Structure prediction request, 136 residues.
Amino acid sequence: MPENESWEYSLHIPNDLRAVTVSRRTLRLILTLHGLIRLVDVAELLATELVSNAVRHTKGPAALRVRWSDGVLRIGAWDADPEPPEPPRPFDEVGEVEDGRGLALVRACADVWGWQPLARDGNRGKFVWCELAAVA
Prediction:
């Protein structure tokens, strides 16, 4: 499939920390098969943070969505909690602490990120997303 054709994948995941690894490996396979290997490392980091937040901080199911369109890769995670994510803190405030730096990493590594309320399969929730522009 040529790089200029749009595509989208969705992976429904249970509320299970193992889903983070499954999501990361699935994303690597998708990007490799579409010839976007140059985006894999950063995309994996971003997806790991988004899916990890969805699984660790909510009680319901989640989903990973990956979309390629017009040279932009959008990675997003849906979860069943309609509450907005905590705003990312600057890295100098996070320091060596493990919790609370996921969205700070997303903000630092993505070209743009955001969130929106979203309903899926009759469940209310939110969709947290980020974008990477492909630089040739």
The longest strand covers residues 123-133. The chain has a mean pLDDT of 88. Strands lie at 7-13, 62-69, 72-79, 112-120, 123-133. The radius of gyration is 14 Å.
